[in-house]
């Protein structure tokens, strides 16, 4: 499933300002953007891609247990993230690295989690209400809806909304349908942001749904809209309008952002086993970074800006690399500590068993020497 007549688009594939007819109502949101904000869009997309590629390299070199690439999905994430207010609550899945960084999460917190040194427990209140990564597919959609119900029942005192990110594969989980039921029933101040990157690991989206996914929420009584997810301006404008509607009592909104996972599902995956080169080429031609750079250059942005962004991206990537190598080894304590607030006899017994088990190997190796 690719673009349809319903797809909202502001920039053409080659970066020209060419809004589709159905983008007209969202253009006021684009027009209010300043030059500095537009530059920030590009900066965040370029920097997170460089860090993303570096993290994949670190995993291949044995420094991370796994990495979840987001290459190709930067526009969907950056545009929508900038559309949210600091008071809004963001519930990610596990690929929203750009959103995390924009909300103030140090990328090393994600690195530490995927190295096995932490459980990813940053405090959302200290990170502009950016909640924790969720590896259980679709469960964060229920979490977000429950939180949004609480906001609605509290009378929305801070004029806040909730936004939840999920992928096309998650739409096949019952959790998502259940969340849509409760969101519609309680008229939650909420935006469902679906990043349709066309593949749930090796299962294509057209095997999961016979209709475009933005049409599904209509059955629950929730308005859905489809956007070009590789167009950062469309992502920003439609998300900003949807959040405004949700905050003002209009109930939940659903956005399907058409994008593409250029890399693997995770570094444990080999997409060459199930994807063809023709499909990949189609989406590479619509690369969100190249597209937005072309747009900025058409507005007069020069080489100096893009050089400074490239330097910033390289510096941060190198910093992430150095800090990752300095993290040290994973200790078994991390498996058991902080599972409960107080010591628990079951986890204490499990920890003792593992220590004894590993000691037997150490003793055997010592004897063999």
From TrEMBL:
Name of the protein described by the UniProt record: 2-oxoisovalerate dehydrogenase subunit alpha
Protein family per UniProt: Belongs to the BCKDHA family.
First-tier enzyme category under EC: oxidoreductase
Function: The branched-chain alpha-keto dehydrogenase complex catalyzes the overall conversion of alpha-keto acids to acyl-CoA and CO(2). It contains multiple copies of three enzymatic components: branched-chain alpha-keto acid decarboxylase (E1), lipoamide acyltransferase (E2) and lipoamide dehydrogenase (E3).
Reaction it catalyzes: N(6)-[(R)-lipoyl]-L-lysyl-[protein] + 3-methyl-2-oxobutanoate + H(+) = N(6)-[(R)-S(8)-2-methylpropanoyldihydrolipoyl]-L-lysyl-[protein] + CO2
Dehydrogenase E1 component domain ranges (all copies): 43-300
Gene3D superfamilies: 3.40.50.970
Cofactor(s) of this protein: thiamine diphosphate
Pfam families attached to this UniProt entry: E1_dh
Keyword Oxidoreductase: yes
The organism's taxonomic lineage, starting at the top: Bacteria, Pseudomonadati, Pseudomonadota, Gammaproteobacteria, Lysobacterales
EC number: 1.2.4.4
Alphabetically ordered keywords of this record: Oxidoreductase, Thiamine pyrophosphate
